Amino acid sequence: MSERRAAKLVVASVVAVVTIGAFFERGADAQGQAPDHPSVTVRGQAYTPRSILARNMGTDEDQTTAFTPHKIIGNIYYVGTRTLTSFLVVTPQGNILVNSTYERNVPVIQRSVEQLGFKFVDTKILIGNHAHGDHQEGDALVKQLTGAQVVVMTEDVPALRAIKPGGKEHPIDRTIRDGETVRLGDTVLTARLTPGHTRGCTTWTMKAQEGGRTYDVMFGCSLRAGNRVTPENAEEFRRSFDVVRALPCDVQLGDHGAQFGMQAKFARIAPGAANPYIDPAGCKVEMEISEAMVRAILAEQAGQP
Measured between alpha carbons, how far is 261 from 256 in angstroms, rounded to an integer? Predict the structure, then answer.
């Protein structure tokens, strides 16, 4: 065995041990699952760690079955699955794709783009919310099919490098930091670092025009905590909650449709009706849920009732 191969095995073993340790640090039930507590109530709705995860992910079928592609607002379109979001931002100079999801979903996304009348090959820039496989595993295939420039948050680079479907190296063409922008034509997306779920979790913001008005759109990054929150992780979340709370928002989107009530809002789309995605009052609900859960986890870890 080569020294390089041996080193890789050691690193993989360490990562596995750390992951398993974090999973069981708060105990496990008879099925080997992390315990489903604490519970929090936000705006009259109760949530537990498992209920949030199940709501976000759905079934395996939900994760890979296309949701009806449709216009959200302005030049923003939905092209993802029932539970894993992917958005197409259209410009005369080409298009920006937000979240490639799993590699197996790339053909699903491509079909949705084409059903809307656009060309997948016109994807010029690929960005994502955070370095987990269900959101950015497909980056290499999207780049292979379109030649798109892959732009990622600097803090997520190590985690993205480890995402190698079929052994493919994860493409990274440009790294950015908090507050930097991605521009294509007149469309500008601003990257806001909102860590906690991952080190480089990125909330993207942009302006969209509809009906002669301009709206603030927020592509929120998940703020869901793991089974244990360390002091460092707690500080990351605290910073992120403050950032998201201060962001102007008329339209909240996210990396899972359930985070912004996508299916219910889509069902209300009708000719002549108000755009249901314009929902300033609902923009910060997901942040409130995540913040309440982080506080409850920290209290539980401290032995508080």
Answer: 9
